[in-house]
Design a protein that fits this description.
9 helices, DNA-binding, mainly alpha, homodimer
Chain lengths: 204, 204
DNA sequence: GAGTTTTACTTAACACTGTTAAATTTTATT
DNA sequence: AATAAAATTTAACAGTGTTAAGTAAAACTC
């Protein structure tokens, strides 16, 4: 009775096709500028087929976000793996990786981290517990705890410090993406400044 | 021949009525959830009338943003005025005022600072030069230069430092607004941490 | 292998959206 | 009162997300 398994595999394949198409289009044209019909056109199915695989457009978005988070986690995990460095350097590299990830996939970053909840009023809010977002954040926390134990940043509540770091790196990433009309100083200089200022501010 | 002046006054009044209605609705329900027809209903005019006063929906938004910016500037200017304090304290108060402003008017903050450009692809990007945004930023810069001269923060490029500060305060504000599902530590503690970390990171 | 049931997908439609062109009402001028 | 100008509206277009009903295809049963 392998027939059921094959069908499930086929369903999963189409799900992935939809997800990939939507992801690429969202990343290229922005969430608001991609309609369900456009996605359907691209994958050569009728628009309503998408609704057999995803609850609605924002669900499609959420699932893409989970994938994007996954990529970010991989990147940060790789840095953590080559743990030759002192924890504080590891932390610093992780911060830089986060920002560069955002700037490399601005539209994915947008839909994952920037797009405000207000756009999804009335939509089901995906729970944080168990999400990729939680895992991504745990990486920061782990590096913070490590740096704290090594005496390289001041002792304090790990959650507070992790969130402070997140605020800083999200801040610069979001601004660079959303305010391209603003006369920022040279990008690398600003990123450097944000990272260094934050680390210095957290030192013992 | 005061008739022409009265007409101009009347036009300006209706413009203000539209702006106020839209501003309130955007702030209450979010930009994406307010349609031109809903605004028209509220002011008891036909939807197309709005287009006689504003180029399109995003123009309406931009003009509201200018107003919102204006309010923020007033708040920050008031702090600057009572310059009894040391520049660094002034700067710190300004940062707090910015964040609190954002949290008090989350939807206005959203449409002014968070909403990504991608939502306005193809729309005319309002120039930064001469905008309220420029003025608001100049306040930060002024306080930075003051603190630098007073030897209370390290010497360096004022633009870079100002933008670093902006990144930090925008980061925490944007996160608190957009990620209400995230288990943040107590709001006041986080805000404190961001401000203190940034200031400490910038000290000489 | 024919008939039935289940699954996958599509067509048609609803109630919206931003926006424009044409028609109309209101106001001012002659 | 008739004409010109300005302000506002009606009607329409082309698009949106989404749902209910209908159709085609595959799988199962006999």
């Amino acid at each position: 009775m392998g027939v059921q398994e094959r069908r499930e595999r086929e369903k999963e394949e189409l799900r992935e096709i939809i997800l990939d198409a939507a992801s690429e289009m969202f990343a290229q044209e922005g969430y608001a500028n991609v309609s369900m019909r456009k996605i359907a056109d691209k994958i050569e199915y009728s628009p309503t087929t998408i609704y057999l695989y995803f609850k609605d457009k924002s669900d499609l978005l959420n699932q893409i976000c989970e994938e994007t988070f996954g990529k970010l986690i991989e990147t940060v995990a790789a840095i953590e793996a080559e743990d030759s460095d002192a924890p504080i350097n590891c932390l610093q590299k992780g911060m830089r990786a986060y920002i560069e990830f955002g700037l490399k996939y601005p539209n994915h970053y947008e839909i994952t981290f920037i797009t405000p909840l207000a756009d999804f009023l009335g939509k089901e809010i995906h729970p944080y517990e168990g999400s990729m977002g939680q895992k991504a954040f745990e990486h920061i926390t782990r590096q913070v705890v490590g740096s704290m134990k090594a005496g390289q940043i001041k002792k304090g509540d790990a959650a507070t410090i992790s969130q402070t770091i997140w605020a800083a790196i999200h801040g610069v990433t979001a601004l660079l993406i959303s305010h391209q009309d603003f006369p920022f100083v040279e990008k690398e200089i600003l990123i450097d400044s944000v990272i260094k200022t934050t680390i210095k501010g957290l030192q013992a």
